[in-house]
Amino acid sequence: MADKTEKAPAIQKPKEQWLEQLGAQACHVLFDEGTERAGTSPLNDEKRPGTFICAACNNPLFTGEMKFDSGTGWPSFFRVLPGAVETKSDHKFFMTRTEYHCARCGGHQGHLFDDGPAPTGLRYCNNGVSLKFVPEGEELPELK
Predict the structure, then answer these.
(1) How confident is the model at residue 4 (pLDDT cuts 50, 70, 90)?
(2) Kindly report the CA angle at 127 between 123 and 129, in degrees rounded to 5?
(3) Which of 54, 57, 102, 125 is an active site residue?
């Protein structure tokens, strides 16, 4: 179901360091596999060219060209950058879903569905609090 990816160099920190760096809401979503409320992320309306990066470690995950309006209330993408994420099965809520995480820090990004647009047919449904946006022309921040 997911695009083939190459493994990114991993990073690990104690949860206390992530909490200090990110704040409670982002830390809960990224490292307790929480979900933000639909429609709350300003990144839903982000349409400029640029790069969406992991809010925890700055790993590039998506480009603006990969984003589409899914109507779900979460930023959605039809493709991920090579090596950017890893997937696993999520058995919460009495169903099986595919969850994806940043391949570098393990931060929970969202869930992967097979109801997206061409050319992949995939929908990476992302928590906005798990992302930061870097507009085209601005330098990407260093990996943390």
Answers:
(1) very low
(2) 150
(3) 125
Q: Does residue 54 carry a catalytic annotation?
A: no
**C-beta separation of 92 from 74 below 8 A:** no
The reported pTM is 0.89
Rg (CA), the chain: 14
How far is the CA of 56 from the CAs of 16, 21, 61, 117, in angstroms? Answer: 13, 8, 12, 28
Distance CA 1, CA 13 (A): 30
With bands split at pLDDT 50, 70 and 90, how would you rate the model's confidence at 90?
Answer: confident
Q: How many Å apart are CA 123 and CA 59, to the nearest integer?
A: 20
For residues 24-40, average pLDDT: 95
Quote the Cα angle for 13-19-20, to 5°. Answer: 95
Question: What is each CA distance from 109 to 2, 26, 132, 144, in whole angstroms?
Answer: 14, 10, 12, 17
Does residue 28 carry a pLDDT above 70? yes
